[in-house]
Automatic annotation (TrEMBL):
It holds the Pfam family FAD_binding_4. Its cofactor is FAD. Residues 32-209 form the FAD-binding PCMH-type domain. PROSITE patterns: FAD_PCMH. Keywords: FAD, Flavoprotein, Oxidoreductase. It comes from the Bacteria. InterPro entries: FAD-bd_oxidored_4_C (IPR004113), FAD-bd_PCMH (IPR016166), FAD-bd_PCMH-like_sf (IPR036318), FAD-bd_PCMH_sub2 (IPR016169), FAD-linked_Oxase-like_C (IPR016164), FAD-linked_OxidoTrans_Type4 (IPR051914), Oxid_FAD_bind_N (IPR006094), Vanillyl_alc_oxidase_C-sub2 (IPR016171). PANTHER family: GLYCOLATE OXIDASE SUBUNIT GLCD. This is FAD-binding oxidoreductase.
Length: 454
């Protein structure tokens, strides 16, 4: 590894095996750890290219990472080099005339959002982990609460700079809105979880910042009633965000955040966000929705701070559970008309298995988040129960024509369920694509796409 130290020429950015902190050997859950020979923190694309060229020539595996917030094992290394891109965190250019911003891949989502909003622009993708990096968001095609109106990360990637396994630097995509010039290579890298190349720079589409953002929380007598009204909401308006949560689940967020949900007598809620620039239009949408829903209790926060408290409770649910007990997070997606079927199944499975589960999620796009709680189970019991619960959940997901991941990715944690959900022909094609970009199979070779065997 002496050659890499010479390439970087900064001993603080090249860390040898015995000095690598354990957090770099895991993912966001920090429950499983791998091992690596070297941790390298490049600052430029040229440094990344040199490292990849050397690693490829010598058959050394490389695991790229950003903030390490991944939840499915994609950043757990299997020997070789950890390539940490967190120091590549510069905002390179804000181009107001083309409504684009170009950033290095290590920029935090929260920093990007704050920066562009200071210039009265808006980056719509809004995954729950705001301290995730843009490169990580692109690599997992991150979604979030605003996806129901604005779409996911893929919809905002204009161009990418990517370093391939052999050190070749690709610049793909452009600032042009329309592009039908050849194959769209950038879309292969979006959601690829670091298996095809190392994303070093991203040019992202922006829109004008909405001047009005309104939150409404609607109460129901049961989660079944709340979910049954999702279709009515989507037929009446296009919400910016549409979330469902039971009162007993919201209590976790209340206890963790210190805030309180309104409508304490309701057993379940839909949280609806509207945005735009026309106050009359938003008022009309809200009135139409309330007429459609009938006589239901609702609250519209009077101030942005009150609205922020509601979203803070919803956004803190996973952390609230982690503060009390070990948990396994699931992000299954089903067709929106099957959300109720899946949530009801989780309740039945909870009773049959004796394992507590908290279901909530993005009602507008069928993304059900599920926290599976360990509680008092010992290590052996937890392993057995978790496997049984996983098998049942993903089987039900498959029956409902859903998919094993909405936005977390596959990584190492969901390989079994990925193989069951995706036809063999599709998987073989993915492997051929992997082989063409990374014939020596050095890039994230521990995750689901294996390049040199079927």
């Amino acid at each position: 590894m002496k050659q890499i130290m010479e390439m970087i020429n900064d001993p603080q950015r090249v860390i040898t095996k015995s000095w690598i902190e354990s957090s770099y050997l895991s993912d966001g859950l920090k429950l499983e750890h791998g091992q690596a020979d070297l941790l390298v923190l490049p600052k430029t694309t040229q440094e990344v290219a040199k490292i990849m060229h050397y690693a490829n020539q010598n058959g050394i595996s490389v695991t790229p990472r950003g903030a390490g917030s991944n939840l499915v094992g994609s950043t757990i290394p299997n020997g070789g080099i950890i390539l940490d891109l967190s120091l590549m965190n510069n905002i390179i250019e804000l181009d107001k005339e083309t409504f684009t911003v170009t950033v290095q891949s290590g920029v935090f989502l929260s920093d990007l959002q704050q920066y562009v909003e200071q210039h009265h622009l808006f980056y719509p993708p809004d995954p729950g982990e705001k301290k995730s990096t843009i490169g990580g968001n692109v690599s997992t095609n991150a979604g979030g609460m605003r996806a129901v109106k604005y779409g996911v990360t893929r919809d905002y990637v204009q161009a990418l700079e990517v370093v391939l396994a052999d050190g070749t630097i690709l610049n793909i995509g452009s600032k042009n809105i329309k592009d039908n010039t050849g194959l769209s290579l950038k879309h292969l890298f979006i959601g690829s979880e670091g298996t095809l190349g190392v994303i070093t720079q991203c040019t992202l589409k922006l829109i004008a910042k909405p001047s009005i953002i309104e939150t409404m929380i609607v109460g129901f007598t049961s989660i079944e009633q709340a979910i049954a009204n999702i279709t009515k909401v989507l037929q009446t308006l296009t919400p910016t965000a549409l979330e469902f949560v039971e009162q007993k689940v919201a209590k976790w967020g209340e206890n963790y955040s210190g805030f309180e949900f309104p409508l304490p007598d309701s057993q379940a809620y839909l949280i609806i966000m509207l945005d735009g620039n026309d106050r009359n239009a938003i008022d009309k949408q809200r009135e139409q929705l309330l007429t459609t829903l009938g006589n239901v209790p609702y609250v519209i926060p009077k101030t942005p701070a009150e609205a922020a408290q509601i979203w803070a409770i919803r956004g803190s649910l996973v952390r609230a559970v982690e503060a009390v007990t070990q948990q396994d997070p699931i992000d299954i997606v089903v067709p929106i008309n099957r959300i109720a079927d899946f949530v009801n199944f989780t309740k039945q499975l909870e009773i049959e298995s004796g394992v507590r589960m908290l279901a909530f999620g993005h009602a507008g796009d069928g993304n059900v988040h599920l926290c599976i709680l360990r509680d008092e189970l010992d290590e052996a019991q937890w392993a057995i129960k978790l496997q049984q619960v996983h098998d049942a959940l993903y089987q039900k997901c498959h029956e409902l024509k859903g998919l094993p991941s909405a936005e977390h990715g596959i990584g190492t944690a969901k390989v079994k369920y990925f193989n069951a959900a995706i036809p063999l022909e599709n998987r073989l094609m993915m492997q051929k694509i992997k082989q063409s970009f990374d014939p020596n199979n050095i890039l994230n070779n521990q995750v689901y796409i294996k390049g040199n065997h079927h």
